[in-house]
Structures are given as C-alpha cells and as structure tokens.
Amino acid sequence: MSSGLNFASFYATWFDHLHHLIHQLSSTPTDHHHHHLVHTIISHYSEYFRVKSLAAERDPLSVFSAPWATSFERSLHWVAGWRPTTTFHLIYSQSTILFQSQIADILHAPRTSDLGDLSPFQFHRVSEIQCQTVEEENAITDELSEWQDEESELMQRRVEASGKGEGLVRIIKKADDLRLRTVQKVVELLTPKQAVEFLIAAAELQFGVRVWGINEDRQRGNHPDT
C-alpha cells in the first residue's frame, strides 16, 4: 500500500476525531476545561502535520497532490494544504460578525471577551503576525516555483528518483510548519473564550468545505475518500 493511501486512512480517522473534539469544545461550559481542550486540539493538529511529514518523506508527490482531499479542497490548496493567511481572514470576519451582533448593546454591555471584543493590542499583534506570515508564504511560494522549474521533468514522468524529491519534501514541511505556527501564535494571543471561538470557526469552515467538496465530487461522478 502506498504512503498516500496510508495517509488517507490516517486522515479519515484524524478528521473524525477532530469532529469529536470540536463537539466537546462547543459543549463544555467552563474556561478551565476550555484551556485543556484548546491544548488538545492544537496537539491534534500537530499530530496531523507530524504524520503528513513522514508520508511526504516516503512519497512527496502523492502528498503534494493530496488524493485524500476532494476536488474542491484541492482547488483551494496552497502547497498541499490551506493557506496560513486564511487564519487572519477568519479572525477578521468572525470579529466583524460578532461585533455587529453586539452593536445595539455596545454602549451598555460589559466587555464580553469574545472575538467581537478584540483589544487594540490584539489587533496590532494579529496584524504583525499576518505581515510575518505573508512574507513567509511568499518565500515558500517562490521556493516551490523554483523547484517546479528545476524538476518539471520529474513531475511530468512521475518517477521515483533518489534525492530528486528532497526539495519538495522540504517545501511541504516548511508550509506545514508555517500553518501550525500561525495557528499557535494566534491562539496564544487570544483569551480562552476567543481561542475557543476561533478554533470552532476554523473547524466548521474545514468541515463545510469538505462536505461541499464531497457533494460536488459525487454529482460529477468522482469518488473521494470520505
């Protein structure tokens, strides 16, 4: 069995467990348990990237093509996964939605400490992290472009050649490291309640994109792993 198929099996189990963790997070009332679950979810994402890294070392082209993902998911991919800067679009959109939902009471209500109540310092730090992430994203994109130019023949022939996939493995690992570090930095910046809302929103986006992709593939006669 290829490493791509092995990882597809791992991903299915990992994804189901993410559903379970997010359900726990959504239904847990106390901040103390929130802190534990937030840490558990971050560790869950870390395990995903660890196993993906091992799969990339065995078969980088398979991991890069992400056969376990739906066609729609792959259309949104950047270096075999979601763009790290998506994190900031999610923060800003959730912050705006929650702020607008509170606007009628904003002059009278106490601070809620949710994503609609980010402090000026938090906004400043989010902006700083975003700028740093964009720079790293661009550098990785440039590195991938250079690798594609140098290894275009390898990609076209889809052959296994000693040493020739090492560059792609390094790029995939850099991209996944940036994804994980971005989430970790943002979560560390947020209050426990804000971190909970952020992780729930991020997971719900991930769930929604996958369900949409599965439905689209079925309508087109494709059969993605579910």
From TrEMBL:
Pfam family, one: DOG1
Signal peptide: none
PROSITE patterns per UniProt: DOG1 (PS51806)
Span of domain DOG1: 4-219
An individual GO BP term: DNA-templated transcription
One MF annotation (Gene Ontology) recorded for this entry: sequence-specific DNA binding
Name used for this protein in its record: Protein DOG1-like 4
Native source organism of the sequence: Cucurbita maxima
Gene (UniProt): LOC111480771
